[in-house]
Specification:
Elements lengths: L2 E7 L8 E9 L4 E5 L4 H4 L1 H11 L8 E7 L11 H11 L11 E3 L2 E2 L5 E2 L4 H11 L2 E5 L3 H4 L7 E4 L2 H8 L30 H13 L3 E4 L6 H6 L1 H4 L5 H14 L12 E2 L7 H5 E2 L4 E2 L1 H4 L4 E4 L7 H5 L2 H6 L1 E5 L4 E5 L3 E6 L18 H8 L4 H5 L3 E4 L17 H19 L8 H7 L4 H14 L3 H18 L6 H9 L6
Parallel strand pairs: 3-4, 5-8, 8-9, 10-17, 10-18, 11-14, 14-17
Antiparallel strand pairs: 1-2, 2-4, 6-7, 12-13, 15-16
Helix pairs in contact: 2-3, 7-17, 7-20, 17-20, 20-21
Length: 497
Amino acid sequence: MPLAIAYSRAQVGVGAPAVMVEAHLANGLPSLTLVGLPEASVKESKDRVRSAIVNSGLAFPAQRITLNLAPADLPKDGGRFDLPIALGILASSGQVPLKALEGIECLGELALSGAIRPVQGVLPAALAARDAGRMLVVPKENAEEASLASGLKVLASEHLVELVAHFNEQQTLPLFRANGLLLVAKPYPDLAEVQGQVAAKRALVVAAAGAHNLLFSGPPGTGKTLLASRLPGLLPPLCEPEALEVAAIQSVTSHVPLSSWPQRPFRHPHHSASAAALVGGGSRPQPGEITLAHHGVLFLDELPEFDRKVLEVLREPLESGEIIIARARDKTRFPARFQLVAAMNPCPCGYLGDTTGRCRCGPDQIERYRNKLSGPLLDRIDLHLTVARESTSLNPRLGSGENTAAAAARVAAARDRQLARQGCANAFLGLPGLREHCQLRPADEQWLEAACERLTLSLRAAHRLLKVARTLADLDGHAAIAREHVAEALQYRPAAG
């Protein structure tokens, strides 16, 4: 009996490694053996595939069937392998031409009736199939998602019967017409709605312009959360490669409307979140909040209320833009290039420094509260700003007058300068880029070194300070960093200790 091979894709993290489904029929008592490190959900596919083939009016071979999912050391789970297994059996028994399976990859879960049901994680598989130069066969409900991979030929089917008829040239299934990824602007809350807080708005614009991390500290009710929710509207729209990365993450984590995928994510986890919920984890690693915030904003409200061990896991992704989750069997990499915005109270009661004098916290209480945040974590936050209590007047004219559209235009112009100069936002500059693009005049450099000594700043903090100064110069349209830019950047950096 011939050996039939159907191609498919597994799901590992946000990747889609290739899987070959090999089907072989031999003489002997009827049986079906499935090998290749299948998980329980894949082992159950034997019964689903048998019923789907029989209920579709096709013949299930009464022979010894061996199915191998290669490579054997790659774990496989989910119902996505039902369709390639069924096609492999049908091709090895002569009900589908062997050549029909060449040059295609397929995904889909089979109902007992033979209907093809949708699966998760189709977009990463579609991107990988396009790069491999193959056509992709998917359930009809997943066709629009697969078509986001521009240049990929997508064949959508609702039932096993019509797919078999297509391969036997009895009827033709048309290629799904791809519309591509629609980058539709989403209406965000307006910055002008925030009353007062001119300095905080300025810091928000600076953070958006250079992709800097930001920490707001102040009494309750001063608008810290309100300000953070305005940041996504200030950020430049996603370019197509970034939008596809965001969409691929959404594809493997949840069924969400396609219209929401091209938007920059804004994640707001509760302070009771575990380390696994924040960075990802599990026996089969799944993305966490920092990956769901990739190319977007991660907002941590009430920062000291998070468990210290949970916050410490943010240190590596804040530097590298990715998180690697290690297990005994393998390692899984998740992208995590997010912008951190955090908010906290200055003391346990929240009113330290408030003009009303309501704070009753003792020095020991305040020190214990602040010690919940480690120095290395705070060192990785570029902008620190104290948000003071504003007047309770309801007069909307107290605002700065700049709305989100005007601020976003200034941010976009600054980002364009950065991309033209160095190919990335200022926050992502490495040491070589820092030396090349953040040079100071000798007098300003000596002045900055003296200031860093007085504030006992670390070398990392000094480098991040230079990046903020570079962003301030970009906002002003200056080619060189001036002393006023360095001076303003110093205002956003508290003294160590």
